[in-house]
Amino acid sequence: MTTTYTSAAIATYDSHIDAEAAVKTLTAAGFAPGTLSVVGKGYHTEEKVMGFYNAGDRIKIWGKQGAVWGGLWGALLGGLLVTAPAIGPVVIVGYLGAVAVTAIESAVVVGGVSAIGAAIYSIGIPKDSVLRYETAVKADGFLVMVHGDAAEVERARALLARSARSVDVHNDLSVPADAASAA
To answer: What stretches pass through the bilayer (predicted)?
Structure first.
């Protein structure tokens, strides 16, 4: 069973380096890894990813950028690799990864969004925002999310605003009726 949080800050980043730095900033400021999520599909390189496997709570990725995702996978307590239509392979680590597994297992489907969008929507993020976040990931961006109460999320927003392309705060989150009925 996953914890339900009442607020979330969602920051968008243009690079995995910036997203990873944001996670380090948040954990250094005392945010528990279990309250953080990172979503991203990676980046284009000449070197191709050769494979993925999960060994315990750590992901092993063969490829040029494996250390980034492997480190985040372990630090943020597990995750999920999904292939989303029109987006491609996407890695979701942290709290949202657990929510995504539940959404997929429950066959939560929200019209016009991928499994990633369904996971974000299922924690109470409005659909118009979900579509914006999917677009950012599709454009090779990264999302860094902080889940918690309103005060924690506001503190996270202030930290994320220093480096993110954009930061949104969503308060009074509740599971949408169509997502709740599928669970």
So the answer is: 67-87, 93-123
Is residue 85 a part of any domain in this protein?
Answer: yes
Quote the pLDDT of residue 109.
47
Identify the domain containing residue 17 by its residue range.
Answer: 7-182
User: How many domains, in total, are found in the chain?
Assistant: 1
CA torsion angle 74 76 77 81 (round to 10) = -80
Hey, what's the torsion of the CAs at 129, 104, 26, 75, to 10 degrees? -160
The model carries a pTM of 0.66
Question: Does residue 1 lie in a domain region?
Answer: no
Q: Alpha-carbon distance 163 to 174, whole Å?
A: 28
